[in-house]
Write the C-alpha cells for this entry.
Amino acid sequence: MLGQSTYPIDLIRKNGQSVNMSEATSRTELGHTAREQIKLAARQLFAARGIDGVSVREIVDASGQKNHGSLSYYFGTKEALVRELVTDGAKLIDNRRNAYLDLLESRGGPNDIREVVEALVYPSVNLSEETETAEDSYIRFITLLGMSHHNLFMEALENRWNSGYLRCLDHLRRLMPDMPNAAKNQRFVFLGVYISGVIAAREAALADRSRPHPMWQAEATLSHFIDTITAMLTAPLDPTLAASWHSNGTEEGPRAIVGSVGMILD
C-alpha cells in the first residue's frame, strides 16, 4: 500500500509532478462552460439510462442551455459526444494508473497480487477529483455502453488508453499461482467484469442523495472489495479443470482488451 491517507493513490505523478489527490479540487469551482455543462449532463443521463434512452433535446435541457442547437454546435452529433466522453475518462484512468504503477515500481514493487489489484481499483474511483465536473458517473456510463454498443465503445478508444491495465496484467501473470495461461486469462475476464460492475454500483449509490449509503461511503469497503478480487485471482484451480486445459492444449488468451477499465473480450 502506497500511503496512509484516504486512498493509496494519494501520491501520483501528473505532468512529471507528484500531487496529493486527496487535496485535489474541481478545476472549475465557479461554474462550467456551456460545453462542459453539456458533457456533464450527457454523462449523467447516459449513466442512468444508456445512450439510446436519452435524446439530444433532453441533454440540452438538462445542461441548462436555451439554444437547442448547442450540442450540434459543440460536438456535431450525439455519437461524437459519446466518443469524447469515453475518451476523456479512459485517458484520466490510464494516466492515473500508469503514475501509480510508476511509483510502485520505483519502490521495487509490486510485490504481491493485492498491490496490483489496488493499482486496478483506486485509479478508477473518485474521478471527480481530477475532472472539470465534480461528479462521478463515468464507470456506469461505459459499463452500459460496453454492453449495448460494443462496437461504438471499441471504436471510440481504438484500443488505446489501456497501457496501465496491460502493465497490471503483466504483473499479475508473474505473481499469480502456477496455472495454465487459459485459467489466468479466464480470471482476467472475470476481473474486468467484477471491477466495472462493483465500481458502477458504488458510483450509483454515492450519487443517490435521497438517503445515506454507509457501506459504500466507508473507506473500508474498497479495501474489502480489493481483498475479494485478490482472493479470486489466487484461488486454487480445480485439478480436473487444470488437467483438461493441459490435455486440450487450451492456452489461448482473450481476444482484445479495450480501454483503461480493461473490458476484456473473449
